[in-house]
Amino acid sequence: MQTQANPQPQAAQPLLQIRGLRAEIDGKLVLAGVDLDIAAGEVAAIMGPNGSGKSTLAQVLAGRDIYHVTGGSVRYAGMDLLAMPAEERARAGLFLAFQYPVEIPGVSNVYLLKAALNAQRGHQGLPELDAMEFLQKVKALTRELGMDEKFVQRGVNEGFSGGEKKRNEMLQMALLQPRLAILDETDSGLDVDALKAVAQGVNALRAAERAFVLITHYERLLEHIVPDRVHVLWQGRIVTSGGPELARRIEREGYAWLQHGAAEPSAQEA
């Protein structure tokens, strides 16, 4: 009797799986067929020149309705992400840190944070935190991030410096503990100290169940947050991928080598 070979274990499904994603704004095609897998526990960097579609990809994943998806699919934690409204994506653990965080005059940080956290807990079937529990949690996080506790009583980003706005987003991320955090050029306009504070916040949250997507122009952020994979977005597609050495090549050479055919669409660097 012939024995059957043991079946090979199947690879775990990526936390985020993008296939052939196409999107446009005002009738202009920006994403022209993005294919990308992000595993739980992975930190992935997406680099590319201006106009390549990096911020568009972040906004589409977050559910920004000014972008029109014209093709492809996105699976997040086994769910059809494109079928979910933006608020449902947030409750399901997707977090977007903006390149330019907006001010919300008249709304205090503490009110926004408490509302966001309790909305998330409600989605998870957990009871809301009372005021005392919430304040204790926030105070502990502000100390960890080197922030003044009075910070949370101010209006959301109202009168904040660029560094303060980014620290505020790190506080939001630390409180909400997302499964997938997308940082859209969060290093824009930051001095060295603020950049290190952002990196500290991200590195403290690295975990086996959580993934990060870092969208950046510059290798300097990746000196502080070392990615597992680097992907280059060019003319609306991921054209090459590699390890941290790919970011260092971009820092040395820019993107001119892409124009000279060094990477064909969908090519993958080891």
From TrEMBL:
PANTHER family: ABC TRANSPORTER I FAMILY MEMBER 6, CHLOROPLASTIC. Keywords: ATP-binding, Cell membrane, Membrane, Nucleotide-binding. GO terms for molecular function: ATP binding; ATP hydrolysis activity. CDD domains: ABC_FeS_Assembly. Belongs to the ABC transporter superfamily. Ycf16 family. The lineage of its organism: Bacteria, Pseudomonadati, Pseudomonadota, Betaproteobacteria, Burkholderiales. InterPro entries: AAA+_ATPase, ABC_transporter-like_ATP-bd, ABC_transporter-like_CS, FeS-cluster_ATPase_SufC, P-loop_NTPase. This is Component of SufBCD complex, ATP-binding component of ABC superfamily.
